[in-house]
Target: Adenosine 5'-monophosphoramidase HNT1
Amino acid sequence: MASNAACIFCKIIKGEMQCFKLFETDKTLAFLDIQPLSRGHALVIPKYHGAKLSDIPDDHLSEILPVVKKLAAASGATDYNLLQNNGRIAHQVVDHVHFHMIPKPNESEGLGVGWPAQAIDTDKLQALLEELKPKM
Model:
């Protein structure tokens, strides 16, 4: 599996740094976030190193959502956010793909999200559809 000697998550995977491990397979590791937004905030990472989602082979991503589902159930969260950032301006701090499972027990704990929605423009949406659909 690909790894990066300077990457904090690769060091955790190799056992060179401590983590509060919740679950592990050959391709996936889940552990508690050390700067939690709420009780049960955890990270799920592929053991394959890549900075962005597009850098990770599909077979190394296939376990991620089932593990997040297990984490949500184990935490008892009925409301939660799943967050995955790609790139600095998208708020990614660690350059290793990671998914946050963040329980949202009330209005003040968990992830606060602003959603700057734009007004609908059906012509622009149709043009975007025609651009993207052939690439899928």
